[in-house]
Amino acid sequence: MRSDYISGLQRYNGVTYYWGGESFRGIDCSGLIRRGLIDALFRRGLRTFDAGLVRRAISLWWHDCTASALGEQHRGLTVRLFDTPSVNVLDHSKVLPGDLAVTKSGIHIMAYLGHHHWIEADPGAGRVITVTAPSADNPWFNDPMNIIRWSILQ
Questions:
Q1: Three-state SS at 103
Q2: For the segment 63-119, what is each residue's pLDDT rounded down to a tens digit?
Q3: Angle between helices 51-62 and 29-48 (to 10 degrees)
Q4: Can you give the CATH number for the domain in which 128 is found?
Q5: Does residue 37 sit in helix, strand or coil?
Q6: What pairing do the DSSP bridges indicate for beta strands 22-23 and 127-132?
Q7: Chain-centre distance for alpha carbon 29
Q8: Which residues, other chains included, contact 84 with Cβ-Cβ below 8 Å and sequence gap of 6+?
């Protein structure tokens, strides 16, 4: 599931940032994070004839939530792992691909792809981008973060 999730996220690379968006026409940070998992659950559910995964995808789509809500373990969808002063100083040996970083303020979220690469729908860049940590150019990489994981990836 973890690799399906990473593939689901990467499909949106370069898509235009659009606040409240959750499609290839435009997507925001929480929309990217949710849509990557919705796509992964749905595709795997269809591929393996697992109706439970398809139902989870539909439920996640139906019950929209923000970056802040995901950081607060909304509906048990995520599990809090630890806090870090910033992604730039994060010990990357403690995170797995698919883990999430939510700003302490709850206004932004990004996903770890592995090998120090993070994907985010960045309003400043105006699109979905992949950034390598550490990054002096990306202001989100300097914010205090809560590191969380989707419950299904536990």
A1: strand
A2: 999 999 999 999 999 999 999 999 999 999 999 999 999 999 999 999 999 999 999
A3: 160
A4: 3.90.1720.10
A5: helix
A6: unpaired
A7: 7
A8: 90, 91, 101, 144, 145, 147
CA angle 114, 24, 145 (to 5 degrees): 40
Name residue 105's amino acid.
S
Torsion on CA atoms 115, 83, 38, 127, rounded to nearest 10: -70
3 state SS of 15 = coil
Q: Determine the residue type at 67.
A: A
Which residue range is the domain that position 13 belongs to? Answer: 2-153
The structural domain count of the chain equals 1
Provide the residue type at 109 as one letter. I
Which residue bears the tokens 């689901």? Answer: 8
Is the previous residue joined to 134 through a cis bond, with omega within 30 degrees of 0? yes
Give the closest residue to 80 by CA, choosing from 149, 127, 135.
149
pLDDT digits (tens, 9 = 90+) for 27-55: 999 999 999 999 999 999 999 999 999 99
Whole-structure pTM value? 0.95
